[in-house]
Amino acid sequence: MISTWLIIFSAVAAYLLACRYFRFKRLRDLQRDWIDRDGSFKIRSVEDARIILEVSNLYESTFMWETSIELALFRTYGIPTISKVLVSTGQLSQPESAGKRAEDTGLLLQEALYNPWDTERSRTAISRINYLHSRYGKRITNDDMLYTLSLFILEPMRWLEMYEWRPLSDVEKYAQLTLWTALGQRMGITGIPNNLKDLEKFSVDYEENPKIRAGNGDPAIVCTFGRQTAELHAFSHAFSMDGMVRTVCLKVSSQISPVFLLTQTEQSPPYFSEKNPTGRYHKLKSNFQPFYARSSVYNRLYFGLLGFDLKEEKWMTEGYKIEELGPNKLKDAGHEQVSRGAQIMFKCPFVLPSRGLSPR
Ligand code: HEM
């Protein structure tokens, strides 16, 4: 009898020890590879930072990272000057365009950040974002851009700290700051603080500045976007929970999973494909709607169950070209400008933002 209990106890103890070992292995590997003996970070290029970001975002905390970026976008709608410009596009408040806008925003950012830095693909995505913004000229201010950038950097850190099974380590925070700073510079944003503390101060001061808050944008209209896109997701209502319950569930699961689950998820599936024979890419992971999905048997069945008919032309199952992303009416516009912008980025040797950057 005793020996049975001993075997059970040993098995459970061995399993828990294995969980502890494997669960934190990627973090230990990151720290071994990217931190010197004297504690300084070995990030020497934007690409180094990007590789670290891939581990944190695609392996360790995919769901929370994606969700916090979406929430960062919602937060920008609280700034009247931002919501005013967004409302004027009509893209977010119309059900026909809101889903595509959400997919394209995610896709352009993923193309920019999840392809090796300085590749044509990444540069073209950044250049396309710049083109879409350029049509609004001075109506999009540098400070609004900087504030949005600060949220893309800080919101995931805050959410991971509150609800994820582990917060980002210092070297991961530093990598996020480095990569987003590089992206921001390529988008022409100036005055980006070179450490997280100053960035946070800028961000909080901006939100609380009475002059900034006093404008007359219309966040309520923009935010219908959230409702509409949520409605498009077949399962979202089935799992909707009271805020308090959700908070408790998130907190509990974040504490339990590192103790009882061997590893965090396997790598999240890649977001996009390589070029297909027609020179287009397919999206491999849809957030809201199946735009640019390949029309395979599996996809037709899977999306069919979610209520989407892939035969409809609007899903563009032939795939996308990066320079076509954005509002439908601009599909064929700006290609030359985008390609020129991408070339200039390539020619300008990028001055490393990590020099002089400190993580705190
Ligand atoms: C770091 C900051 C920002 C990033 C990374 C960013 C990213 C993007 C992306 C990926 C798109 C393409 C979405 C699509 O149309 O499918 C986009 C479009 C757009 N963004 Fe931004 N954005 C930023 C800041 C801002 C700010 C501050 C404003 C407004 C004040 C703004 C206004 C717009 C507008 C108006 C469009 C084009 C929509 C259209 O033409 O219909 N963005 N942005």
UniProtKB/TrEMBL annotation:
This is Uncharacterized protein. InterPro entries: MPAB (IPR046366). It comes from Planoprotostelium fungivorum. PANTHER family: ER-BOUND OXYGENASE MPAB_MPAB'_RUBBER OXYGENASE CATALYTIC DOMAIN-CONTAINING PROTEIN, PTHR36124. GO terms for molecular function: oxidoreductase activity.
